[in-house]
Specification:
Helices cover about 45% and strands about 20% of the residues. By secondary structure, it is α+β, with helices and mostly antiparallel strands. The longest helix is centred in the last third of the chain and has 22 residues. The protein folds into two domains: about 70 residues, Arc Repressor Mutant, subunit A, CATH 1.10.10; about 170 residues, Beta-Lactamase (2-Layer Sandwich), CATH 3.30.450. It starts with 16 loop residues before the first helix and ends with a helix. Helix 2 packs across helix 3. A hairpin with a 2-residue loop joins strand 3 and strand 4.
Length: about 260
């Protein structure tokens, strides 16, 4: 009998544990642990202190972390090159960005490109509107899938089994009083997205935020990303977005898909 694989199809024997541990240490650096101590990294990862020390020294040798004194560590700018390499090698980002600029010019609102990564939506690229006040998000920003228009588009295209798992873990956590938390209502919302080809979400992720998204498809017709535009409820009503913004959004999304 061979080893049982995980949901990716790989068994434990197919994975290199030292690499898994190395990435666990890198991911321990976040907004709450920008300059963590060795002990804090060990606590966050569940690894022993000697193992964390060896990994940090290896990452220091590679240029990805550096000590700051008192057994504390921080990331170096070199970690940005990992994301940069993804951006330059991703066809959907390269193709989409000129169209996203056009979307911003035609709507006056910001444009974002995102994909589903696990149970979260991750921003791949963003073109902000030319305003002082705008939603703060950059490439790499991660947000929950269920209360966002981007997530609705991506979940609507995901396998039903994946959606059912999502409803259990992480579940439909309420972020505002408007967040859909009932599984049946959420399934209906996804079916509506499939039927009309776009999603419109108002104040479910945060108060005052309204956003619309449309799917980006590859040459096989599979959804590979979501294109979105967002504004504030003080600037636009759902009715205005549906009538004036979504036709432009869906046209640009189709153009990106055609170029792919």
């Amino acid at each position: 009998m061979g080893e049982e694989g995980d949901e990716t199809g790989f068994g434990r024997g197919d994975r290199i544990q030292s690499i898994e541990r190395g990435f666990a240490v890198l991911l321990a650096f976040d907004a709450e642990r920008r300059n963590p101590s060795l002990i804090e990294v060990a606590t966050a990862t569940g690894l022993s202190r000697p193992a964390v020390r060896r990994i940090l020294l290896t990452l220091q040798h590679l240029g990805y972390v550096e000590p700051t004194g008192g057994s504390h560590w921080r990331l170096t700018p070199r970690v940005l090159t990992i994301g940069q390499h993804f951006s330059t090698s991703s066809a959907v980002i390269t193709v989409a960005e000129p169209h996203m600029i056009r979307l911003v010019e035609q709507t006056g609102e910001s444009a974002s490109l995102s994909a589903l990564d696990g149970n979260e939506v991750v921003y791949l690229s963003r073109v902000p509107a030319n305003r002082v006040l705008s939603v703060m998000a950059t490439a790499g920003t991660r947000v929950p899938a269920h209360p966002t228009s981007m997530g609705r588009v991506l979940l609507a295209a995901a396998p039903p089994a994946f959606v059912e798992r999502y409803l259990v873990d992480p579940g439909l956590t309420a972020l505002t009083p408007h967040t859909i938390t009932d599984p049946d209502r959420f399934r209906e919302a996804l079916e509506k997205v499939r039927r009309q080809g776009w999603a419109l979400v108002a104040e479910e992720r945060e108060r005052g935020l309204i956003a619309a998204s449309a799917p980006i498809r590859d040459r096989k017709g599979e959804v590979v990303a979501a294109l979105s535009t967002s504004s504030s409820t003080g600037r636009m009503s759902p009715e205005h977005v549906a009538e004036y913004v979504i036709p432009v959004l869906t046209k640009v999304a189709r153009d990106i898909s055609a170029d792919l």
